[in-house]
Amino acid sequence: MTAPQRYIETLYPGYGQSFTIDKVLFENKTEHQHLIIFENRDFGRVMALDGVIQTTERDEFIYHEMLTHVPLFAHGNARRVLIIGGGDGGILREVLKHPEVEHVTMVEIDGQVVEMCKTYLPSHSDGAFDDARLNLVIADGVEFVNSTDETFDAVISDSTDPMGPGEVLFTSRFYNGCKRILNKGGVMVAQNGVCFMQLGEVTTTRKRMGLDFEDQNFYAAPVPTYVGGIMTLAWGSDDASLRQADLATIEQRFAVAGFKTRYYTPSIHVGAFALPQYVLDALQGT
Questions:
Q1: pLDDT digits (tens, 9 = 90+) for 35-64
Q2: Most exposed residue of 51, 87, 147, 164, measured as fewest CB within 10 angstroms of its CB?
Q3: Containing H/E element for 60?
Q4: In whole angstroms, how far apart are CA 135 and each of 39, 53, 81, 83, 275?
Q5: Sheet of 34-40: strands edge to edge?
Q6: Residue 170, pLDDT score
Q7: Active-site residues: which are they?
Q8: Exposure of 9 by Cβ count < 10 A (0-12 exposed, 13-18 middle, 19+ buried)?
Q9: pTM assigned to the model
């Protein structure tokens, strides 16, 4: 019997994960990167870019809920939201659940990722691309935040790891541009890697984001697909009270929003800002 084909992730040189490929749904070199979407018996449909797993049907809800609901419930009244990246539509789906959101601009550099995810990962967006509140822009996120005249209450950066097209979304120029377009009292969050394996990303982000945001910190979420431990999510605002919102406040906002979640809860929201000692020690040295 022939052994099933396997997809071997190449993010780390000496450690990683692999998935059996039960069926390839799409594979091609886009204008910017190598894209593959395949089926796996345990995780459902899986998308990878340039050798790195980006999302799976089985556990995407953890990442998308935490990167969305923590900043939006902390803010409490984010009417205009900017999403950088997020071509699979998962962040967009979660943002649009918030009844106070009036407008979302989503800037994705690779239009083919959006189209292929609509086709092969439709549950990620769940119709969100058809929402009238969305303005989808196919462009470079760094250039957008440094040139647009629009302003936003929240910015969510759903990027790949700092390599290839996603590398520029970890630069001082990007963070400075995000700060430029944030309304007073706004908040920015960003994917920031698995801290046990990528601790250097945490310290580098602290140094770069700290130049623009008075309150710069991190919160955490465990996403099985992103192997190596908990994932850190970067946080930036000039209003420290947003990050320090108490449980009662978050519970009240969550109740008013009136939608169900699969991972996020107000208690998890508050607890997510508690970081491991090794991360705190690393940040102490920055």
A1: 999 999 999 999 999 999 999 999 999 999
A2: 147
A3: helix 60-75
A4: 30, 27, 11, 10, 35
A5: 23-29, 34-40, 44-49, 52-56
A6: 64
A7: 158
A8: middle
A9: 0.95
